[in-house]
Specification:
Strand 37 and strand 38 form a beta hairpin. The chain contains 7 helices and 39 strands. With 873 residues, the protein is mainly β.
Length: 873
Amino acid sequence: MRRLPALLRSLIRSSSTPATPLTPLFSPTTTHKPNNVTLLLSGGATALLQLVSPGALAQEALPRLEEVTVTAQRRAEPLQETPISLAAFGEERLEVEGVTGLEDIRGLVPGLTIDPFPINNGTLRVFIRGIGISDAQITQDPPVGVYLDGVYIARSTGAAMDVADLSRVEVLRGPQGTLYGRNTTGGAINLITARPSTEAVTVKQTLSAGSRNLASSKTTVNVPITDQLAIKFGALFQQQDGYVDNTGPGEDFGDREVAGYRLDLRWQATDDLTVDYAYDRSEVDYTNNSYQHIRPRTPVQGSQADLIDSSANTKYATGFADELATIMPFLPSYTEIEGHSLTLTQEFDGFQIKYLGAYRSLFDQSYADLGGGAGLAPGQDPHGQSNASKRVFRLDTGEYCGQAAQFVLGSGQCTPTVRPIVEQEQWSHEFQITGQAFDQRLEYIAGLYYFREEAVEDNGPLHHQLSGPANLGAPNFENTFGDLPILGGVLGDLLGPNTTLRAVNLLSQRYNIENEAVAAFGQFTWTPPIWQDRLHLTLGARHSEDTRTAIKNQTDITVIETAALSVDGSMALCSDGTSTCRNFDNLKATQDFSDDSLSAIVAMDVSEDSTVYFKMVEAYKSGGFNTRDPQRDGNQGAASDGNDYGFGYAEGFAPEFVTTFELGAKTELLRHRLRINADVFFSQYDDMQLNFLLAGTVADTKVANAGEAEMWGFETDITYLITRDLVVNLSYAWLDAEVTEATDVNGQDVTDQFVFFSAPENAFSLAADYTVMARPWGRISLNLGWNYTDERNGGTLQQNIANTELRAYDLVNARLSLTEVPLGDGRLGVALWGRNVFDEEYELSAIDNLPEADRSVIWGEPASFGVDLSYEF
């Protein structure tokens, strides 16, 4: 047994670069005691790989893995020297995977899930380590920060942007509270575009065609103007049909057309001053997907949703249905994004000063239909004008011309079709100073940050929201409407035996917000003159100040239609005996927050190519206001579920906080052919913003800081250059996330009602890139990818898990390409590709609170195939 450590040390030395300026920490010449665990990991891996591939290590000419440069710590540095759990994708990998925007990296990073928001596919729901936001309200912020060339993108609406020329994507897992600040409790995603070059004129053109009438064109042109000035232009055009047909009126579900443009300018004004300007614009025409209903609704005593019989024209299916039918014309949606950014970088002797200023605007108009999906029966009309037509169930914002519209607007009037609009503008300024001092033993970055945004969500004027036949058999129908004099005493005399009542909800909403944030931050890394400069100590801090203002306007009217008359049934939804309890008139709410977040890192260079680190980091997610709160403030008394919560929309909710501890290692073995990065972490969440669905309602919620949570996790990214022609990438994430405390308004423990959503316990991604043949006339490559995601909750925190659980699934992608074919002055390439090649049927989202179903899902994209043709010179 005494020979084992010596044998392992021998194996380590045989797999290391012969001469290195840094003495291995466990070399016999050092006075440090060997660490048997480290020896076993390093030497054991070498010995095992020699057994698996005995001839590979003898190939002295094998290339090494390319060094990956990232900017996760707001400065360019090697991935292996960055003590952060992160995944980075370079330009070549992005092309292989077909990534043109944020949504395309879904499945490539275990622990990261990206789904379209169910009723607005122009909005993305991003989760890292199970932390994200399921609702899309302009008064609430997502806890995963998205950055485009360093510019924070505040709204998840519009985050589905398509950028014409991405050069790198970085996914930072875990809180980033000091260098990135608020709203990064889950992590951050950096989208980095390619900058212009003064070296030469370059042009690249890629054309694609594929399943469901896919047609795409991507163009990039780089033009040097002078030795100091260059511009770069990029354009992307893409269209594709959806995968669910609409057999009713209007557009099909999921159709999409994209036009993206980007202009970059780089001016080397002096030897030390660099000016970068960028303009980008994206236009997306799309139609939303729609939920498909799995299980009919089970009636619940006291439920408002069960006052409407929604089953008459609802389609139920246990698996994917390739067609549904709308009742009203299904309308297209539109998103327009525009941005300007200016970066000034001034180099000095030993330090750098940078200014980053940006302006971005967003316009989004989205139409959704959450109806039954079975369409109209013969002889029915969508407005309930006849007794038979009163059986029609609708959940959309289309035109309504029934009695309810005339009751509210006047004889012969119809409520208009409404496509809710979100408009947002944001401005940001950031100053940074980075550098080194004390013989380069101190590395530092410090900065000031300012952010402001204005936005409006306009869901008006008064329009149709929900209608259907009143369910006379509902357990609570008589109790709910019996208190209304006209319904309790007179209604029975007016109704004939065959008369059908119809309930119609009319709604108008408008929310305005103004948010402002300022911050001062710094991070300092000190390398003391001990232990051969192996030890690196980092301390970071950020002070943040937030001011948030929101104004809510809402009119909510429920009308009961009969053959003889219509009445205001809104008071049936109120506990104060009036019909105005759910109306808001310019209700203004303001909150101020401040936070101090710290981070500390201890990193040790175990050898020239291996580093271990321990990290502690804090972060916070800003507070806000809940637009779905049915009460104005805490003075309104009991809500529709009979509870007096003591707060309403005006009080809002406070920030939530997280502290994370992370132990990680980054190492390269086998002469830089094997790269293993891994970490384990523990996170503690306090003052969690819990969303309570009010009993018996469809969408009325209360948000309160009433929870705590813990999570444990393990993540690893492994890259192995097995031979000159074969590279394998394996990424794996394990997550154990649990809500440990949740208390309702009555002080009762309701912890069992809450569970993390989009937090799969296991997820992995396995990719292999194999060069089949490399000749002067071209290179043939095969790329295979296998992505697995474990079962997870697909709804919000407070859910019936049996109705919202998403099944585990795995997707296989493939690409066969011929590249580097000489043609004229350039190179030609062609590739055949397939995504979800085995046509896996999987779910992206599930909800349990629609009136027509206890379980409704949105299915993922089926198998698709295509071809890419590219030429560059």
